[in-house]
Amino acid sequence: MADTAAPPADAPAPQLDDVMLAMDVVDTLRHQDRLVERELGQEARDSALRTRLRQIYESQGLEVTDRILDQGIAALKESRFTYTPPRPGLNTFLARMWIRRKAVGTVLGILLVVLVAVVGWQIWQGNEAARLAEEQRIELTVTLPAEVREAGDAALAAATAADAKAAVETAMADGEAAISAQDGDAMRAAVADLEALRAAILRAYTLTIVSRQGEDTGVFRIPDVNEDARNYYLIVEALTDTGEALAVPVINEENGQIETVTMWGVRVPEATYNAVRDDKSADGIVQDNVLGEKRRGTLAVDYLMDVDDGAITSW
């Protein structure tokens, strides 16, 4: 066993190994930069350096032999007990990766998951875009054309009157033009028009003059352009065989808008207006209250009284 330092008077002496003492000496020298610069660079003054080191240790309650101090001084000069990092290189890099393999593995695992997710997303996006493009192609070339032609055939089959058939054929021609242009919006509009046309053709009702208490039977308007003239209207409703009032699209001549209503005013000549007024004046009820009939398979109303073109939806 190497020499050990004597303990101070008031504490037990620490038992230190010679090598540990030498390392401590080196460490002390490193932390005494000014002392080393002043003393260690001058070999003739090693003894003075040794004395100064001994004083340092004695101030800490330690006694260190000259041999240990000499070993420490020599070790410092030889750079012993000093860690010199390895030169950068592939081997050093791989060694460090191996030391940090757990952390590196975790990072690589996360990166791999992210990479797989990104690649998967891109593949899905590509497949989704291709799927949507194919769906759109099928819709424009197969689905919508079939719907247009099916709606046209159904509307044409429902039409019995010449005017109804002509209206359906015109709408079908618009649909075929949309098919040729592969215009999806126009084809959908054609389907909606043909379905609405079929519903109108199949609709049947009696155009009945309103004569209920509290309801107007007829009204008149004074045109803005001619205050001496009057436009006469009979208020009507479309009643089914069961007495249900249907909502019917009507063009309001006062604003040009199509409005769906259950009661509206049909423009009539003054003679027709007066005849209905006289009918109601007799007993408060319009006995001859059927203005016209709309039959199934037709579009036009067969009027039983003289009427003019035009209608209003409010009065």
Automatic annotation (TrEMBL):
Keywords: Membrane, Transmembrane, Transmembrane helix
One Pfam family cited in the UniProt record for this chain: DUF6384
Transmembrane portions of the chain: 103-124
Origin: domain of life: Bacteria
Protein name: Uncharacterized protein
Organism per entry: Bauldia litoralis
